[in-house]
Amino acid sequence: MSFSIDKKEKYSVIKTTVEKLDSNVAPTLKSELVLMSADGVRNIIIDLRGTRYCDSSGLSAILVANRLCKNSGGSLVITGLQENVMKLITISQLDSILNISPSVDESVSMIFTEEVSRKI
Predict the structure, then answer these.
(1) Nearest of 37, 87, 91 to residue 61 by alpha carbon
(2) Span 32-59, pLDDT tens digits
(3) Any bridge partners for residue 114, and if so which?
(4) Are 44 and 12 contacting, i.e. CB atoms less than 8 angstroms apart?
(5) CA distance 2 to 75
(6) For FRET with 27, which of 14, 63, 82, 119 sits at 20 to 30 Å CA-CA?
(7) How many CB atoms lie within 10 A of CB 66?
(8) Which residues contact 109 (CB under 8 A, 6 or more apart)?
């Protein structure tokens, strides 16, 4: 598998274990995201620390995760972005719609803050 999943009570962390998030990996990731959503996972953190390259199919998988989380009333946070991946997200102007955090711990804080905001 090209990624690992750590399920917690309020969120799940998907950690990529490949250098390239491309058309070889993205379809599997999308399928897993759909399954997680069907299982009731609303909040997802995608840790891309190990990923140095992302193409349009990788961005598509990230956008699927974002849509699934929003549709279920949850949040997606992307963390651990390498310079090249961050440049692609910025060029694509996705940095304005995606929640981006420097670390998993800060991502967890973002998710809990947004959970509290939704309850108010």
Answers:
(1) 37
(2) 999 999 999 999 999 999 999 999 999 9
(3) none
(4) yes
(5) 22
(6) 82
(7) 21
(8) none
Q: Kindly report the backbone phi and psi dihedral angles of residue 84, in degrees, each rounded to the nearest multiple of 5, phi listed first.
A: -65, -40
Structure tokens at 109: 């804080």
Band (pLDDT 50/70/90 cuts) for residue 82 is very high
State the CATH class of domain 3-115: alpha beta
Q: Which two tokens stand for residue 4?
A: 């690992």
Per-residue tokens: 33: 């995201």
Rounded to a whole number, what is the largest CA-CA distance in the chain? 42
Domain regions of the chain by residue span? 3-115
pTM: 0.94
Strand pairing of 53-54 and 44-47? unpaired
d(CA 106, CA 91): 24
Which residues touch 65 (CB under 8 Å, ≥6 apart)?
33, 44, 46, 76
CA-to-CA separations, 90 to 41, 43, 96, 112, 117, in angstroms, rounded: 27, 23, 8, 25, 27
Helical (H) or strand (E) element with 62: helix 56-71
